[in-house]
Amino acid sequence: MEKVNSLNYTRILELNEKIKSGKANKTETDEYMRLIYQNGSITEKQFDDYTHGRNVEDILKAGLVIGGIILLGYLLSKLFD
Fold it and tell me: Cα-Cα-Cα-Cα dihedral of 24, 30, 26, 28, to 10°?
């Protein structure tokens, strides 16, 4: 995978897999959430709640699903190129 439209899909995939496997540290999890926030995939309120420790588990779960959708969209776009 590559960096397209300033979104680093490879990094999102790496972080997504680490978080799902329980191997990501707090810095990596924060980076992942920041990447999907900067992509506009979660709202400012969701990101703010995440960074302030409110509803973290639910927001992270949603973030993992959203990241999967981002990656699926990327792969489908490459398939049809």
Answer: 40
H helices of 22-55, in order, are 26-38, 44-51
Q: Dihedrals φ, ψ of 77, to 5°? A: -65, -35
Tokens linked to 28: 């990596």
pLDDT (tens, 9 = 90+) of the chain, 81 residues, equals 444 446 899 999 999 999 999 999 999 999 999 999 999 999 999 999 999 999 999 999 999 999 999 999 999 998 997
Listed in sequence order, the residues at least 6 apart from 33 whose beta carbon sits closer than 8 Å to its beta carbon are 42, 47, 50, 51, 59, 60, 63
Contact 59, 49 (CB under 8 A): yes
